[in-house]
Fold this protein.
Amino acid sequence: MKDFPGHRLHCLTRDLCDWTHAEQAEAFCSAGARWIQFRMKGAKLDFWEKAAIEVGEVCRRHGATFIVNDSIEVARFAEADGVHLGSCDALPGEAREQLGPDAIVGATIHDQLELATAVSEGVANYYGLGPFRSSPTKGNFLPALDPAEMDLMIELAGKIPVILIGGITRFDVPGLIDRGAYGVAACSQLFSGGALEENTKAMLAACARAVEKAA
């Protein structure tokens, strides 16, 4: 299984905004981000695949890791670096079988049961743990993680990197890195005020300072 790329900030694209997904990816990459998760919901397959190709081209031009959210099929079609799967998507094992040993496979976990399942399968390169708090991107479909529960799941994940997600701001980053999280994923915070590049730079800087302090 391929080693996990050392990017502490995962930038998620989103629907229903003033920029195409490719334009969002360009802004993130221009700000210095090197992990882009292409997240499109409810689109027809041909439109989804076209947008994925465009985002992939941006990522390759910048040397950024390109991850497709939800769909193994779209990830394979766009020759993405990997896929991130939620609890309602295909299993990580299916992604590994279809995308091969070098693909990056991420798995969303919300509780200890989901974590235990992911650990036993032994396929995921990293876990996306959340929600840290409710966010405009995800809504309130799940309660925020209890801090003690979050700490325990980070510990139980062992050597597999844990990426926290859910309403995270740059001010949260130091505490999360200090608690053992490998990094953070962000979406709504990066779009605040329409300042994609500025917000991304601020989040990257927070990650860098937190990692340096924790070293």
